[in-house]
Amino acid sequence: MKLVLSFLKPHWKLCLLTVFLLLVDVVGALIIPTFAAQLMNEASFMINSLQSALASAERTFEFLDDEEEIPDTATPVNLDRAEGTIAFEHVSFGYSPVKILMKDISFTAKPGQKIAVVGSTGAGKTTLINLLMRFYEVNGGAITIDGITSTDLTRKGLRKNFGMVLQDTWLFGGTIAENIAYGKPDATREEIIKAAKMAKVDYFIRTMPQGYDTVIENDANNLSVGQRQLLTIARVFLCDPPILILDEATSSVDTRTEAEIGKAMKELMSGRTSFVIAHRRSTIRDADNILFMENGNIIEQGNHTELLKKGGAYAALYNSQFA
Ligand SMILES: Nc1ncnc2c1ncn2[C@@H]1O[C@H](COP(=O)(O)OP(=O)(O)OP(=O)(O)O)[C@@H](O)[C@H]1O
Ligand SMILES: [Mg+2]
Asked: Which among 236, 246, 242, 247 has a CA at the least distance from the CA of 272?
């Protein structure tokens, strides 16, 4: 299909115009003498239809015009397990090159540090994470991992150093054990149980009818939101990546479950460089560095004490929302 469309691409406007003129010609020759008024109606209907056909053709070709993902470097550096230093060096980025969202972002995260990414909706928190994982390419500057520019690694080589716990937990139809072992299919049962214990979900799993062999339904309806999140935390414990991305849940779980998730997350973050899209006061206060974002840029950074002392945008938000 794509081939046919690319072949037609240079000529598509011409093709549609020819079809249009032909139709007008034929219809005109048949009807003009007797049904002039009706012709006007039909012609305007036809023009409307053609206009919308042209518009959708244009959208199709715009889609075809979209740049393909740039290929991985042919001579990648091998980074088996990162220490976990991450730096953004004067990064600029726009989802469209004509509309730059991030103008000049710089920060460094040292191994094991906890970075809270804070900002209102649309501030650019997810975008920052997308760039870190190379779901998009920067327009300027560089992102480095242990001093290696991330484009010098393959995407796969880069991403194996990351673990993610997102708000929308993703589980598939399979047993609990298979779900935990998703990132490490050759894991032994002992390793799976150890990871579940670390995520504080082992006890709950043992109360299920078939324990670790209980099948999770496709929509995971037989599990609560909190249990699903703990299972994805166990999954990350098992893979043991040096860098973490956590999107702190805002969804409603009961206070006890929230405390359990909080504890498991805290343990997971220990010894790993962690980026947390943070909503909880305690997470933000404990962070080694807070990146306070607005309109795609970091407008303030520092730890809680430093930023409060500064008395700027973070202090204003903190005092209005949390104090
Ligand atoms: N795929 C995309 N294409 C074009 N623009 C996008 C895309 N994703 C996000 N944006 C825009 O980039 C800006 C930053 O969005 P982003 O998703 O990073 O915000 P956020 O801080 O994660 O917000 P939220 O708290 O709502 O998740 C917004 O203006 C958004 O509309
Ligand atoms: Mg977001």
From this structure: 242
Q: Which mutation among 63, 96, 125 tests ligand 1's pocket best, with the greatest number of atoms within 8 A of CB?
A: 125
User: What does each C-alpha distance from 315 to 32, 283, 299 come to in angstroms?
Assistant: 74, 16, 12
Q: Global pTM?
A: 0.78
Please tell me the predicted confidence (pLDDT) of residue 65.
53
Q: How far apart are CA 172 and CA 161, in angstroms?
A: 23
Which residue owns the Cα nearest ligand 1 atom 6?
95
Q: Is 146 left (phi over 0), alpha (psi -120 to 50) or beta?
A: left
Ligand 1, atom 29, residue with closest C-alpha: 122
CA distance 92 to 300: 17
Cβ–ligand 1 distance for 93 under 6 Å, the answer: no
Q: Residue of the nearest CA to atom 11 in ligand 1?
A: 122
What is the arithmetic mean of pLDDT over 108-115?
98
Query: Cα dihedral angle (140, 143, 147, 150), rounded to 10 degrees?
Result: -100
Upper half-sphere CA count for residue 190 (Cβ side, 13 Å): 0
Burial (CB < 10 A; 0-12, 13-18, 19+), residue 246, is buried
Tell which wins on pLDDT, 25 or 257.
257
Give 121-144 pLDDT, tens digit per residue. Answer: 999 999 999 999 999 999 999 999
CA distances from 5 to 64, 186, 194 (A): 9, 43, 53
Cα–Cα distance between 45 and 41 in angstroms, integer? 6
* Assigned token pair, 77: 């550096």
pLDDT, one tens digit per residue, over 7-20 is 445 455 544 555 55
At residue 25's C-alpha, the angle toward residues 21 and 31, to 5°, is: 140
pLDDT, tens digit (0-9, with 9 covering 90-100), for 290-309: 999 999 999 999 999 999 99
